[in-house]
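User: Okay, second chain of the day. Same drill as before: sequence in, structure tokens out.
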Amino acid sequence: MEFTTALFYVFSAILILAATQVITARNPVHAALFLVLSFFTAAGIWLLLKAEFLAIVLVLVYVGAVMVLFLFVVMMLDINMDKLRQGFWSHFPLAATVGVVIVLEMSAVLWRGFLRPDNHVPAAADTIGNTKALGIAIFTHYQFAFEVAAAILLLAIVAAVALTLRRRKDSKYFDPAKAVKVKRNDRIRMVSMKAESARAAATTDKQEG
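Assistant: Same drill. Structure tokens below.
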């Protein structure tokens, strides 16, 4: 057995164990950390498959940005785990059915690839690099799918911004432009009042009388 093959099996075992812990860990922080381990292991497998660009993007985007955001949200929210576990077994049959269908679909695709492997690789792919080859494949064979995905992501960004900027009656906000325009007389108002000593003396005389 070659060294790269042994590494592939080791990384695959770690990836399966980490993915299992993601869905079985009781602590959400531990589940997020196991997901980070899964991403790193998947990046290692992609490096073994000579897909350096995908491995770097997975580490930078998902581990460096998305998972950090997940950890912040999970640690800042007070999650009631007992409430989340309610109704688990009632939804288990549907979830198990969907999971079995996904496993069968992936098994059919992988089994077909193992039965009839396509070893024909263009000679130019060895010289232009996998990043350039990925760009050529995206903008030629998968151009329509790429544009549809870009439109969906743009719609999601606009929707997120619109939901965030929605003004609520119970929310408090601060307008810096109005704060800059405020003058001194608008901040402090001088009110003339009688001396407290005279008022206190009058109250004392009234009580004595």
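The chain has eleven helices and no strands.

User: Thanks, on to the next one.
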